[in-house]
Design a protein that fits this description.
By secondary structure, the chain is an alpha+beta fold. The protein is about 25% helix and about 25% strand.
Length: about 375
């Protein structure tokens, strides 16, 4: 492929904005530098020795969390066309601006993240629950803002391209990068659980201008947690970002969603800090459970006090749909969600993925349903 062809391919629209249907091309801060680090010999040496090391991210974080970095906020807002309202707020550092907390309203697909939209959707959902035939059809929401890819998981636990459950021409996803094959087993550092077979895999890629907090996608319980140590590679496309899902540091949560069953939620750290901050303390293994943060006597998943799991002396944290789960520090990051077959994701998300397009969406918008 010639240099001109490569340049044309890189500049081709690769993202579709769900709200408008508009094709866009993402322009990332430091895109040329990332390409150099991953596609040139000298760059790969520097990457391995310096940039992908935790100490580099730590040192860079010291600057961005200091008052000296406040001057970087205005140019960033201008570059990415963010709201000028951010400039009126007194953020103490660029890091504080980056990890800011905003209001999130659960709403129908493609709707604006505003209170009026959220209230209207809440009323609609309450009405539907009382209609005949709608029992058990619960909304499943986007856990984060970013660019989404959606894949099917077959009965063998392999990731496949498929725009429809009835699509007979589904193909195994070729996650082969430089001779290495990447799979669900490598993402989890464990065999694919039975409850995920026949389900869906979602990849939320958060780039620098995206909102870097994330929520629980539906009401349920947090049962188990696990940390996996690893590198801090880039999650950008030009860095072969699938590799990061199996080699970067990540945190895995086992969730049980009301009326939808169990899913796995995986936060992946990335280059240039990308630290993961979950609000609940993490245990060292799935063999231990997370204690409920609710006080005894308070309502928790429709019951009083802490909830036991499967008759064992373990406690689960109960959460509401849209409750904040955590946030990332400075740096692009990724969330991978592995869903069981009771959760039906909207077809447009699969169709876009099959066309080679990521779908740009926002945190809190509906992306699927839990089927009865």
């Amino acid at each position: 492929m010639s240099k001109e062809q490569k340049q044309k391919e890189q500049n081709a629209p690769s993202i579709i904005e769900r709200k408008t249907g508009r094709l866009i091309q993402e322009e990332e801060y430091g895109q040329r530098a990332i390409y150099f680090l991953y596609h040139h010999f000298l760059g790969r040496v520097l990457l391995k020795m310096i940039f992908a090391r935790p100490y580099f991210s730590f040192l860079r974080g010291l600057y961005y969390n200091s008052f000296l970095s406040k001057k970087d906020i205005a140019p960033f807002v201008e570059k990415y066309g963010l709201s000028k309202e951010y400039l009126k707020k007194n953020y103490q550092s660029f890091g504080a601006f980056f990890s800011r907390k905003e209001a999130v309203y659960l709403r129908e697909a493609g709707k604006e993240n505003i209170k009026e939209t959220g209230e209207a959707w809440k009323e609609k959902i309450q009405e539907k629950r009382h209609e005949k035939g709608h029992e058990g059809k619960l909304p499943f929401y986007a856990t984060a803002s970013g660019k989404l890819l959606a894949y099917k998981i077959d009965q063998e636990g392999q990731i496949i391209f498929s725009g429809s459950e009835n699509n007979e021409e589904s193909n195994l996803l070729p996650l082969e990068i430089k001779g290495n094959y990447y799979s669900i087993e490598k993402i989890l550092n464990a065999p694919c659980p039975e409850f995920l077979k026949g389900g869906t895999l979602l990849v939320f890629r958060l780039s620098l201008p995206d909102y870097h907090r994330y929520i629980f996608p539906a009401r349920g319980r947090l049962l188990r947690t696990k940390k996996i140590k690893g590198r801090l590679d880039s999650v950008r496309k030009e860095a072969a970002h699938f590799k990061a899902f199996s080699e970067n540091k990540r945190e895995i949560s086992l969730l049980e969603l009301e009326g939808m069953g169990k899913i796995l939620h995986v936060e992946v750290g990335a280059m240039l800090v990308g630290h993961i901050h979950n609000h609940l303390g993490f245990k060292s293994s799935f063999d231990k459970a997370v204690e409920c943060h609710k006080e005894k006597g308070t309502e928790c998943c429709g019951e009083k006090g802490n909830i036991q799991i499967s008759g064992k002396n373990h406690l689960a944290h109960c959460f509401a749909a849209g409750e904040e789960k955590g946030y990332f520090s400075l740096g692009g990051s990724t969330i991978v969600e592995l869903l069981n077959n009771k959760i039906v994701i909207d077809e447009d998300l699969f169709e876009n993925t099959n066309k080679g397009l990521e779908t740009k969406l926002e945190i809190g918008e509906r992306i699927g349903y839990g089927k009865a």
